[in-house]
Amino acid sequence: MRVKQSGTLGRLAALRLLAQRFTFLSLVAAAVLLMLLGKADVLLIERTRALVIDAVTPVLDVMSRPAGAIAQVVSQVRELASLRAENARLRAENERLMHWQTVARHLEDENDVLHQQLNFVPDPDPAFITARVVGDTDSGFGQSLLLNAGSRDGVRKGQAVLSGETLVGYVAEVGDRSSRLLLLTDINARLPVMVESTHTRAILAGDNRDRPKLSYVAGNPNIQVGDRVVTSSSGAAFPPGLPVGVIASAADGTIWVEPFVHRYELEYVAIVDYGLGGILPFTEKPPPRRHGGAEN
Amino acid sequence: MKPSPWVRMDAWVRHFIPFGVTLILLFAAALPTHLPGIGGIAPMLPMMGVYYWAIYRPDLLPAWSAFLIGLLYDVLSGTPMGVYALVLLLVQGVAASRRRFFLAKTFMVAWWAFSLLAAGAVVLAWLLMAVLNGAPSDPRPLLSSYLATIGLFPLFTWTLARTQMALLKDV
Hints:
The structure holds 2 protein chains of 2 kinds. Chain A is α+β, with helices and mostly antiparallel strands. Chain A has helices at 2-39, 43-81, 83-118; strands spanning 127-135, 144-147, 160-163, 166-174, 179-183, 190-195, 200-205, 213-215, 228-231, 243-249, 255-259, 268-273. Chain B has one domain (5-30, 40-167). Chains A and B meet through helix 1, helix 2, strand 1 and strand 2 of A and helix 2, helix 4, helix 5, helix 7 and helix 8 of B.
């Protein structure tokens, strides 16, 4: 009797092991299948991602608030340490900026007069949404952040994301109340830009490192370290002139751009609707519509 | 004697602790720290959770839990769906199948084995991403993330062990 029972138990255990192996193998198959489906750009995968992120964002939102407070304390302590040097730097900068303010006032007046003479139609002021960064998972494979604003707040795929006046990236995925910001440093991010001083056009291409590089540089450029890089109007994705960064190095034929804003500094961002096509990373782009026929 | 409903409910809730704790590790990894330099060394916290529970309580964090946590990591970090699901599933599978070996050994052995397993996991993730993207990505951020993960392993294992002692001793 005892022997018989242990035999049954043994068979049961063997059966259980078999079931476990089967579950394991089917999960491996499911993972591979998901990767293939994702590669084929199935809409279902994208919807599922957006849904899951929507569900998780409130949790991250609550959890990230104390984390933000701690980070604030740390940065305050750091600021205390360099107070004197910072003060001196700010005084010098203030002097310089006062000079610039005078120049800007003068130019603004002149610009107003010229606009009146030309009957210039100004661009409408863009609408914007302010969102908080709630998720920052650095897997080492991409540079993207989760924001706590989604389609119900008016966020659309491809819209520009700014920190202050600086372009930091664009919206790549949109859920109902959350969205994913693809930073310009991401390996999938491509942006038409130009070097401000020379008007040299190029494509800013991220490669997951802190500094994106300039590729497809047009013409015979004379690019200097420290030149400002701004968006260009090519592709009608974003309005021209949004600041992006400065040239950091231009050695060995590769030109690296230091962005004005770094990933870790982003806490609140503005999602801006310029009414242009935006950069649509995964779908077919609608034909660009230009404003006011400014370009012929 | 049949246990009272309260006792049964208590045991039932405690069964979710390994999954819940690993989920918290996952969310913690997703929080923005706003500190310079931390971005590049984000440790793979959920992997530590999956590894620990696969060795000490594989009944409470089975393969499908590791799969789900990996899938959630994929969604949160923006990697293609299935990459970390497969990686964490394999971490769980390998650790759980060798658990008898670990249970009798010292902490140093568990640490050493984790460093090997995590290296394999990172290389696999990198290869999968290279195939899916059609181009290899820069391995340097992965290396720093890997080293940070290995360095933080004792701290998190100690925390997980305390959690297990406090909440799962009799379950």
